[in-house]
Structure formats: structure tokens, C-alpha cells
Amino acid sequence: MNFTTSNKSSQNWLHILAAAGLLISFFLPWLSWNGNLVSGYTMPLGSFFSLSEKVGGPENPFPQFSLSFYLFWLIPVLAIVVIILMIIKTKAVIASFVAGALSLSLLTVYFLFSRTLLDFGVGTNVSSMLKPGFYIHALSSIGLIITTFPVKRMVTKLIWLLAGPVFAYGSYTVGEKYIMAETHASTENLKADYTVNSVDLIKEFLANDTATNKKYLDKTMVVNGNTSVVEILADSTSTIRFADSTGSYAIFSLEKTELPKVKNIKTGDAVSLKGVCSGSIFSDILGTTSISFKRAILNLK
Amino acid sequence: MKKSILFLSLLTITGSIMAQKVTTTSAVVSFDATTPKDALPKAENKTVIASFDKGTGAVAFEAAVNNFAFSNPKIQEHFNGANWMNSASFPKFSFDGNVDKINKVKFKKDGTYKVKVTGNLTVKGIAKPVSAPAFVTVSGGAISAVASFKIKLADYGIAGAPIDGGKVSKEPKVTVSASFN
Prior knowledge:
The complex is a heterodimer. In chain A, 47% of the residues lie in helices and 20% in strands. Chain A is built from 10 helices and 9 strands. In chain A, strand 8 (270-283) and strand 9 form a beta hairpin. Chain B is of the alpha+beta class. Helix content of chain B is 17%, strand content 47%. Chain B has helices at 2-20, 73-80, 161-164; strands at residues 21-32, 42-53, 58-64, 69-70, 92-99, 111-123, 126-139, 142-150, 173-180. Chain B has an 8-stranded antiparallel beta barrel with strand order 1-2-3-5-6-7-8-9. Chain B is elongated and about 50 Å long. The A-B interface holds A 55-58, 61, 118-125, 179-180, 182-184, 213, 217-218, 229, 231, 233-235, 237, 239, 241, 249, 251-253, 278-281, 283-286, 290, 292-295 and B 23, 25-26, 28, 40, 45-47, 49-51, 60-62, 64, 66-67, 69, 71-74, 77-78, 81-84, 91-92, 94, 144, 158-162, 167, 177, 179.
């Protein structure tokens, strides 16, 4: 009788210890990306992907799911709930299982994302990025699930142990495959961020290239003007150039599908082009500024 | 009077030298870092500025890093990222060199001439010597040229797990082709 009571009591304290570990380690650094510390709360706080971008990693590939990150605030909340329920000697089965599974899924995402960062040239290996907080949180999550009582069936606990990592790994792998199979959206279907006149565009770049590059880089633009050069390349693609009086120019690399239409365009014709701006460079060869656009099409709308 | 003659002579010589230089703003540079593990890291830039001096054999090109078009948006993002080409800080890469024995190329006679190009390729602000065979084609007075060479990414301070893991070639192939006006 005494043995059972003492056994139950120690399990109770172990469970509280695991929940406390979970709570504290949620706010400790889990990872270091080139010296930038990432904690458990970084994700629900919404700064996970901004930190990634800061170190040269990717931005959030699925911003439509950003709201779901708030779900991870449940980890510290449920840890506190578990501690309170344990102190007042009330069952905390669901809270413990959910907190543990959520934590393990978040740890899995952090691990996998750090592996992705290696592709971006951040760090040399994932294990060197891991901080003690990561291990403490992992042990606390496992401990929380294992010490959950009165559940005695190990199968149930095993399912909860695996549920988070399996779900996170599966979702991450599917997301990664989707991203790697992705191609650029057709320029025709892209909404133009800016519509400008070619002479004004060149003038703007010449006046302040730093600010203008920042403004237009990777933006979809419609540029209207009179062509200065139309060239058909050997691979049946083409380029169209708008120049100003200084010799500086905007050049569009057109999609192969545009060739039949481009063939009818002559130097001096007024045209409207839509493309993705690659910014400007100053050419030492020509002594002029060159603004280039990729994936361009004739804007016939 | 002597000064005027000297000035006119210089003007004529300069004019003649200038006439030897041909340029284009639609040269094509392709970058192929594919490996058996990954077919995605390859791109083309079709708005490359190039020049070729028929008299001296001087060749040069400049490519806007951001205008390399990859089929996959994520790979394009990797390529331009701070830890790879860092196009925000180094918006162009360039080549400056010479065609060896330029007199081998007969610009008044149609044909394809095999030559050797040597020079410096500057990527991320780091200049490294490059030497490659090239073909200069003369056809009805028009000149076109093509050259291929490999670059060692490590020479330009580009390293990382995808290279070590065989997802990106350690020595991508760069092909430059240009038709001069």
C-alpha cells in the first residue's frame, strides 16, 4: 500500500518535473543559426522565418498557414495546466499527451528546417546548430508522455510519442516536394506590381539605383515604350530593348512562346512588355546602365 | 600645322581601333551545376553584355546575377542568396580576357575558327584566371562566338552542404555564346 502510494507520488513528481522542463525549455535557445538563437517560442511568436531570412535562409513558403503557428503557444499553456492539475491531484492525461506531441512535432520541424538551411549555405551540420534547450525540451516531452498516468498501456503512450514527429515529418516532406516541383507562375497570369513608361523607368534607375533596385527587384512590371533593338536569338527566344538618350536601357528576355508576335515588331514600334525585374547593373563595357527583365511577354491586355 | 596632322592621325587611329570593337547586349550565359542527384541547379541569362575586339582579341562579358532564370523558384532564391552568389552585394559577374593569336581568325573569310581564350572571371568580387577553348564563327560579316569552361565554386568562396552532398556540382559548367552586331 505504502509502496504503491510512494510509487504514485514519485510518478506525480516526475510528471510535474517533465511539465516544468517543458515549460522552461520552451523559452530556452533550441538552435543557433550562424549565432542567431532560435527558441521554441520563436515559431508562435512569428519570428521564425524572419530569422531564417536574416541568416540567408528561405522566407515562409506557405504564408497562408502562418496562423497555425499560434497553436504552439499551447505548449507552455498546457504545461502550466498539467502542473496545476498535478498539484491539485487531478488527472491531466489529454493535456499531457497534447503538450508532449505538439512539442515533439515542433522539435521535428526545427530539426528538418535546420537541415534545409544547410542547402542555403547556413551552417555545416544540424547537430552543431542544436543547443541544450533542444535536448531538454525533447527529454521533457518524452518524459511527459511516458509519465502520464493513470494510462498504463505503453502502446497508447507510444502512439502519442510518435504522432507529433510522424505528422511533422510527413507534412514537411510533402511541403518540400511541392516546393521543389514548383515552377514559376506564367507571367501572363501575374498581376503587375507596377506599370511604367520605359524612359521614366530608366530615369528613375539613373537617379538612385540603390533605392530603385530595392523598389523593383523581383517585381512584376509592365513597361511601355518604343523599342530600340529587337533581337531574335539562336534558340528561338528574343530580347527587346528600350533605350534612352544616354544609351542606358531596359532589356527584356522574352519567353519562347512570344516569338511569332516578336517577329512582327520593328525597331521604333510602341510596345507594352510585362516581365519580372532583375534590377540594374552598371556596364563597364558600355559605360551605361542596364536594367534587365526575365520571363517577359508582350502585354496585349 | 604639325599638331593638326598629329591630331588627325590620332583621331583616325582611334576611330579605326573603335571600329574593331563589336558588342552585344543579348549574349547568353548558361550555368549548369546539375548532378546525378539533382537536375534543378541550372539557369540561363540571355541579357548578357559582351564585347569583342577584332583587332586586339580582347573579349569581355558582364552578366546580371539576378537575371539568371531557373525553372524552380526556390533554387533561384538559393542561387541569389547571401550565402551563395549574394546578388544583393555582387549584382554582376564578369569576364575580362583575350583571344590568343587573334590573327588566326580571318574576319573577311567565312568559317569557324578554334581559338583559346584566357582571362579573369570575377564572381562575388573574386577574380580567378580562366582558360578555355572557344569557337569564333564568321558568316557574311557577322561574328558569333561560343566558349565553355568549368569554374570551381570553392575558388569564389562558395561552399556548403548541397555541394558536399553532391546536390550541386563542385565545378559547374559555364557556357557563353554571343552574336555580335
